[in-house]
Amino acid sequence: MDMDIDEQHYTRRAGTQRVLPIDDEHPFDLDQYISNYTGRALVDRLVFLIPQCPTLAIQAAQAAAKQIRSMRDTTLYAQLMSAYEQAQANGGNDVPLPPFHEVVNIDQAWIDETTRKNGDEKAKLEVELKTYSSNMIKESIRMGHRDLAEFYRSVGDYQTALKHYAKLREFCTTSQHVLDMCIAVLEILIEQRNYAHIPTYVFKAEPALDASTSALRSSTHTSAGSAATPHAAATAAQVSRDRFMYERQKTQTKLEVATGISHLGLGSYEKAAAAFVRAGGASTLGPWANRVIHPSDIAIYATLCALATFQRSQIKAQIMENDVFVNSYLESEPYIRELVENWLAGRFKAVLASLGRYSTRHALLPHLAPHLHNLTQLIRSKAVALYFRPFATVKLEKMATAFGWTVDETEKEVVRLIEEGDIKGRVDRLGKILRAQETNQRAELFARTMKAGYDMQSANRKLLLRLKLQQADLVVKAPKQSNQAQQSSQQPAQPAPPQSGGGGGGFAGRMMEMFSNPLGMSSALDE
Amino acid sequence: MAPSTSTAAQHEQSAAAAPAQEQLKNLDELLHYLTGANTTPVSVNNALRSFGTKETREALLASTLGSGQDPLEILSPEANTLGYLYILAAKLNVNGAPPQAEHVESFCKRFTPEHARLAPDRITALANGIVKASGDNVKHALGPLRDIVVRYPPNSTYLTNVHAIFLRACITARHFAVALPVLATPILNIDSSISELHYNDNLVYHYAGGVVLAALKRWREAEEFFEIVVTSPAQTPAAIQYEALKKLTLVQLVLYGKPIQPPKYANNQLIRMIKNSPYNTLGKAYPQTVATLTAIIQKDVEVFRADQNFGLVQQVIDRAPRWLIKRLTLTYITLGLADIGREVGLEAEEARAVVMSMIEVGEINASISVDGNVTFADSTPQFTKADVDAALARAQDQAKLLRDVERALNSSKEYLQKALKHKDEAWGTEEDMYNTPPSGAWAEESMYA
Fold it and tell me: Which CATH class is domain A391-436?
């Protein structure tokens, strides 16, 4: 499954993107979408969006260009241009797009200026790092690496940025430093959609988080002890505890979200949903809300993953009755909240309709896009299975109306689900009725027991014979030959002890030839 | 395993060996000694074994008496089993003195098994001689061979090398049904002291047995026989085991509609080999419509032909629609014949024929209405009280058998030695002993101790 997704992912990136519909049926509000993000995250999303929505390309390209001007990565212009050109190709004649330079005014002077500034900055930082290194001051070296990493990141050289973060690690003196490093690396990995490596840094961050929390706690205790009155001390301790719990929560939320994105990217939806719903309130996301992932996107990721994999009771307990999640995330996307409510109320037609309605919105989320098809399929299957569960028989026609499909479509879906074992039932093709499977438990048990008995006896018999053979040392051995031949006979490619006549294996080989004849002939006769 | 016989034999040996050792220079003397009183089977065997000189023994045994009479006329198969056996085997294997067919047949019907077991080498020679003597007309050898197979071992669960010779003869003569009574009893015992067994005898017997059963379309038994060959202990797998695995894969497709993972004690090398073979490709694709399967095996037809398995492959493919229909019964309650035909790649009329035949043999439980609609009913297997009783009885037998095996093992010398040596150390779990050679398991445990 992972493999498929990867392939899909790459082909999509390679340029076989389809054009997404944007109309009254599939509403999409670019301005609102843009307003959720800033900086590189915004540019990345726009670059992702442009080829798929040629109708919005002009507006998006302008917004992106404006954003790029306020940054210092000149290569983004090139990315934007190639995305725009792809939009032109995808749009074809239906959506005539003016040439790129008419839409975006490429400011060559700015590019030169920024490139020069970047060069200066780099030189400056490198000299600084060199000085620090020769002075052997750990903390300064760490900061030198950090500054360089941040610099490289801002100009879009992620590999070098990661390299500096990796070097920085040995100069970390407190667990807070390790945490900072991990969070920064996670940001880069998420931006890069390098899902497989995310868990490594989450695992690295977790012990650091524990260590830093306990360090904070002990420091509060000492400061509280030195306070004048016991009462004041208690209050102070309370306040500071709240503060560091909040600090801790901030990191924890980021780690959960990163884990969620990683699981989603790798196709384990259930784990992704579980990680997302563990995240703390939206406020703890801090700058991540605009730079990495917006709360409304978390709501979408979490809900779709949960609907596709969670039990109904889990959804109820972990999403609808999870106040933090509802207040922080679900509220920011009202239709998602409705989606969950409809699901819990069994209004599957509405669920599927709204999934279709917002498919454009979903397909434009970079982490979700490659999995959208799978998730939708899973949700459909789940819906059908849930719908059927309380019934003994259902008319396919009725089912079709409940889901808003045609009868044939319904039948196909149901048959697929039966074959995959998601529904225990059988279809009456003539009466167009789906009947639940009635198993005669008693007969089933008898049959299973009988079979188990038979299998066990047969296995016993075979194993006993094998035991006796071994006791009598009737073990197939490689024929005694020169060492070289023996080695080759142990290689798997060699079908068996080789051809030469002398040894036992060769004998077996000849024997086999003698024997395969009769059956070949006999079965040829049977035809 | 006949401990009583062998200890008794050893005991008698010292007493009886001396007088028999000397004289007996020619066949007449031998005959006189054989027919005389005061002989025990062991002393007779020793006398025969040391008869004449090594070079002349066979020729002497195969000769006639001084009066020109055939010694076999005088000896009786029951009373003089050993003498008869030695002379008969010599006659069969020495050129120019073939015994009369009646002598061979009557001996095989009438010999005394307990005596004959003292000379397993002569039994081997006899069996080979019978096959050789029959020349192109192997079917004449079947009767005597079957008599030996049935009468020679202490009971029918023992394997002898004559088993393998007999099965080969059955297949060469294409008389498959003759082998069935022998194949019906599974082999459970191996005793190298009553028969000169080589690992090939076991492999050949079970492989040939599988071939016979498959030719008679007794798929379930054939599967078991092939599986025994595949899982026989091997340091390096033999070619015949690989051939058996190929056939096993095909038989399982016929039997279950899908390949079954071989048991984990099967040799890994074999499993790796089959993974890259066309057999695995076919197994993975199975079942699909006949047209699709034919297209899939197209490029491997030559391989199947070269392995002499193409007939089986064809049968496997012919059965594919049945498996597809069987699968439909899990999904549908009613279905038109035309729909069935479309699903399995057949015309409606062909589909009707297949469905009918499946109903007849009880593979599915269904009815066809006049307008061509098929209704699949649930097929819940029913068991009568007698079935359950029989199953219980089998289980009890099995439990007893296992208990006996365990006792025998517990009292065996090797086990007791080991138990004594490692009395104070922790014992490995059952699985450990089963997967790793005992020596390895011990070594590991002593590390922990």
Answer: mainly alpha
